[in-house]
Specification:
Number of domains: 1
CATH class: Alpha Beta
Number of helices: 4
Shape: globular
Number of strands: 10
Mean pLDDT: 87
CATH superfamily: 2,3-Dihydroxybiphenyl 1,2-Dioxygenase, domain 1
Amino acid sequence: MNPPGPRIAELGHVGIRCHDVPRQLSFYTDVLGLTLTDHDKDLDVWFLSARPDTEHHEVLLAAGRTADADTQLIQQVSFRCDRLEDVVGFLRRFQKHQVRLDMVVSHGNAIGVYFYDPEGNRCEVYWQTGLQARQPFIEHIDLDTDLDELLTRVRASVERFGESGFTEKSYVQWTRAHNETATDGSSAAPGK
């Protein structure tokens, strides 16, 4: 029986950190037949989908894997919600249960809350806005804002940056620091 409150609708996409992104990209496109929908060479991220007309991406491939080749790692697991209110409800639930949060963002085409499971795997709950935005698109937002006002701000941001994508400098810096420490074996703490 499902508890009352916010509910997960389905798994949306999985992000995987890779040792060899070109090899992985070749496998996912050539062998599995996924479609490349977006990429960013500076961040070394690649977005893939089996249903590009329905789902912008179901798999994200990213550089920066630090573990041995035989270690299994997940960059993130994302769960789609049917309503923005569900995402807000999960944020409140995470805060109540002292779940470690990573970031609360607009992706233009979605609004998401990133968090860590008890073993440190990064996950996300998100709601699709129905807007089109090139990825990556990462803009920090405050879900304590009135939701109508928040959606007005998201629409304005997508009108401005939707065709080019948008990534806040703090996220670019965090990504670069993580990728650099991945090569020297140290660990970088996620930041806002």
